[in-house]
Structure formats: structure tokens, C-alpha cells
Amino acid sequence: MVGVRDNDIDELPKNAANYTALTPLWFMERAAQVHPNRKSVIHGSRHYTWHQTYQRCRRFASALSNCSIGLGNTVAVIAPNIPALYEAHFGIPMAGAVLNPVNIRLNASTIAFLLGHCAAAAVIVDQEFFSLAEEALKIWSEKDKTFRHPLLVVIGDENCDPKSLRYALDKGAIEYEDFLQSGDPEYAWKPPKDEWQSIALGYTSVLASSSTAFITVDSSR
Asked: In angstroms, rounded to a whole number, what is the distance separating the alpha carbons of residues 130 and 156?
């Protein structure tokens, strides 16, 4: 009988039969499969089922991918607790990118520092905070010679003055729902190859010069 060394298991390489990277993205897929018609989101007059939410997240990921945003990129979201922010927690990592949820109570100077530090490839901003984002982008562009204007998407808010949405669109922003419609609801997202892959980036809300960044990986969500 051939003996088995104690370290044989340790030397066994990862493969599809013995390893799957942990990721919270599976929870969304499973919810859509098991409870497709149950309510997932209720926000004022807006109601979504798990099937609809999963499709919206896949559209989000697809739309980002169509803009060449994915692995190695960071997407900043400046928005309160609304459906789009929830969708960002799944749609952005489904594209392989890293989510950076920005505290809406920060000033433009601090937000400019955060956007520059993470080199945001896209900024998704609620209509209410578009002027704040615009000022932050201006500060970033003036301080960074390597500045490249990120993709700018504005989330329409029916409770806000429609003039502010028109202003954002006139400035070159894409309306969020239109952005989603450009994506594929059946987008074949891929789980991370390594559960240590970054999924989210956060910052402590202090002075920009001393703000601390922290990374969340797939297995820790």
C-alpha cells in the first residue's frame, strides 16, 4: 500500500472540484432563483422583486463592462440609502470593480481627495448631490496633473427639482436608468478567482489629509 504523506493535502492545488472563492454575490443569485417574485426592495412607490433586482444588478455590471470598467477599477457612489446604492453593492463587483461608497456628509474638498486617492474610474451620484460631486471633481482636476474625467452617472430623484437633473445631463452625465438600460439583464458575471480579491473600499470620515483607507475582500462581506 502506498503511503500518504502528511503534507499531501497542503500541496494539492486549487481546482474546480475542491475550491470555490467565497463571495456575497452568490446570495443575490440564489435569492433570485429561490424567491424570484418576492419583494426585495421597497422605496416609496418603487417596488422590485428579487428577480428584478438581480437583473438590474447584472445590467449595472454589463453597462460598466461596456465602458471598459472592471477588474482594477474603482467606482465611487455618492448617494443616500436608495435602491441604486443597494444595486451598486452587487452590480459593481459583478463587473470585477471595487465599490467606494462615499459619505454624503463630507465636503467637496474631502471627497476630491477620496476620488483622487482611489483613482475613481466612474462616479455614480444622486441628483441631490450632483453639485457637490461637480465641485469635488473640479478640485481633483486642479490638484492632479494626471486627472482623467471619470464616467459620470446621475441618479434621478423624483423628489428633487427636475432642473438639477437637466443641469447634470447638460454637463455630460448619463441618467442612471438609461445607463442600466444599456446593459444586458442576462450578463454572465464571473465570481472572483480569489476570495481575497477587493470588493469594496472605504475611508474614515476625518480630515482629508489624515483619512485612512480600508479594503474589504469578498470573503469578509
From this structure: 10
